[in-house]
Amino acid sequence: MTKLNAAITGVAGYVPEYILDNHELSTMVDTSDEWIMTRIGIKERRILKGEMMGTSDMGFKAVNQLLKKTGTSPDEVDLLICTTVTPDMQFPATANIISDKAGIKNAFSFDLNAGCSGFLFGMSTAEKFIKSGQYKKVVLVGADKMSSIVDYSDRATSPIFGDAAGAVLFEPTTEDVGIIDEDLHVDGAGRKHLHQKAGGSVKPASHETIDAKEHFIYQEGQQVFKNAVKGMADISVGMMEKHNLTSEDIAWLVPHQANMRIITATAQRMNLVPEKVMINIEKYGNTTDATLPLLLWEWEDKLKKGDKLIISAFGAGFTWGAIYIKWAYNS
Ligand code: UT7
């Protein structure tokens, strides 16, 4: 039987218009452009404004653009996976809402939550459906309205996050391109360092949880930082070693955009020159599930068929991993 690979055959993205820059943020909390640029590397982030606007509104825009640009009719989509930590609502799945808005009627869809590694875990999942031979067009969308869970009076978390969505199309190929290998991990014990305290079944919303600001992101920054540097660097270097890849062999590192210092440390451990590292954290901040597809979207023009990419992330859970892909097309 011919071996099927799962390849990304199109990329799209959406960022909201409103720009919250460090100057404006420093009128809201006790911070400064200098601190944020030095410690995190973010200049500005996008915020989704508007009544009743949620994650699906951004995800839908990315998916719509993806379908148009790849010449895919909504009817042809077999499966849509949405990775998010900020679903429109607890249920139904945001994936279902995006499918409805995009006119996708012949597919099934579901959400996947793996913190900032969501898009990586989603890539792995999409690949398995494609490789089964039963699904020909799988849409993977990573979208988050992080501004809906950020406490804008907390200077430790408010500079970090932004809103955005990105989407990719996966299709089967018999060529030696697409996802080559993956190495994905979780350590649930890490949840104590990064989570949302209330709003789930353990602690449903109440006046008390709202007064105590327990619906916002809780993060112990330094603990997460230490684990992120080790997690992303070890896993990316491990993937290189497993496939005998030198830094010359790798065309691009596609790293989750949480902190410029985490990205730099990972690239240095991989011995990569800065020119081979995709970085847009300065413009968008940490958009959680959208960082990876947004990078691919922005760099699509520069990517060539056969380019070897290491995609790597670390996030709440803890979750982390690396995926090695060979890019499937010239744009
Ligand atoms: O994508 C999900 C995974 N998340 C991450 O990967 C995030 C990982 N963590 C980080 O990126 C960093 O830990 C942060 C950016 C969250 C914080 O940076 P840090 O260098 O670890 O700062 P810190 O928490 O150790 O704080 C250092 C100092 C403190 O002051 P003192 O106690 O030394 O006087 C903070 O109060 O910086 C202060 N500080 C600030 N100052 C100005 C904290 N936030 C700010 C701020 N502006 N926004």
Description:
The protein is α/β, with parallel strands linked by helices and 331 residues long. It has two domains: 5-176, Peroxisomal Thiolase, Chain A, domain 1, CATH 3.40.47; 179-326, Peroxisomal Thiolase, Chain A, domain 1 (3-Layer(aba) Sandwich). The chain has ten helices and 13 strands. The strands form four sheets. Strands 1-7-6-4-5 form a five-stranded mixed sheet, sandwiched between helices. It is globular and about 60 Å long. The chain starts with a strand and ends in a 5-residue tail after the last strand. The mean pLDDT is 97. Oxa(dethia)-CoA binds at residues 31, 35-36, 39-40, 116, 155-156, 159, 221-222, 224-225, 228, 258-259, 262, 286, 315.
